[in-house]
Design a protein that fits this description.
- The structure is a single chain.
- The chain is α/β, with parallel strands linked by helices.
- The chain has two domains: about 1-135, Response regulator (Rossmann fold); about 155-245, Arc Repressor Mutant, subunit A (Orthogonal Bundle), CATH 1.10.10.
- Helices cover about 40% and strands about 20% of the residues.
- It contains nine helices and twelve strands.
- The protein has helices spanning about 1-5, 20-30, 40-50, 65-75, 95-100, 115-135, 180-190, 195-205, 215-225, and strands at about 10-15, 35-40, 55-60, 85-90, 105-110, 155, 160, 165-170, 170-175, 195, 235, 240-245.
- Strand 3, helix 4 (about 65-75) and strand 4 form a beta-alpha-beta unit.
- Helix 7 (about 180-190) packs across helix 8 (about 195-205) and helix 7 (about 180-190) crosses helix 9 (about 215-225).
- It binds calcium ion.
- Calcium ion binds near residues 16, 17, 59 and 62.
Amino acid sequence: MTQIQSTKQHILVVEDETDICELLQYVLEREGFQVTCVNNGMEALELAGNKAFTLAVLDIMLPGMDGLTLCRKLRENQATRRMPIVMLTARSEESDVVVGLEVGADDYLTKPFSPKELVARIRAVLRRVNDRDADGPAATLTKPVQAQDPGMVTLGQVAIDPTRHTVKVRDVAVQLTLAEFKLLALLMSRPGRVFSRDQILEQISGSDVYVIDRNVDVHIRAIRKKFGDDAEFIQTVRGVGYKCLEA
Ligand code: CA
């Protein structure tokens, strides 16, 4: 028991609302995590720079330095650059979430959230990070699972070859339009990560593609239709955008 305790995963919680801190501490400790709560960004920066945490949960609304700035600073610091971060936001506004993801958060939760969901998200992020690190030192943040065929990237039943512009579902070739292909490639470049419609649109309407329909939902529907029974490979995240399933 004592040995297990010494290797406990340690979570840093940055939140100025005492009752939420206490709730998070209670829930996470019950799940076997060690938890340290601080109520401001400066303290969090200092702590995280001196000690390795397994993951940080950052509230966006903080006195002084807000959670987004804190997240950006943690990403800039060599010591905390790779620490997984889950953001908490009181607002479900897309802009907050998107900015959060853009400054390097791995996931986000909108208040009020269920403790069960928070734990599930934390575990999912940690799984993702472990898979990423298991790929070895050469792996980058965005490196998806590599299949046998060099250049081919496989996630679950879906395989994509970005250089040959081919897609296979359960080993059967699927014909996608260039816009659909780019959209899928974007989602598959960061499995489990949510992309907003604006981010997707920006990606698929690059200079070499003439996007006739700027409605991202239409392209998503088209891909899902072509994927048939595997349509759920692309998931809708209500109010935010889309993501693809992790392997
Ligand atoms: Ca707060």
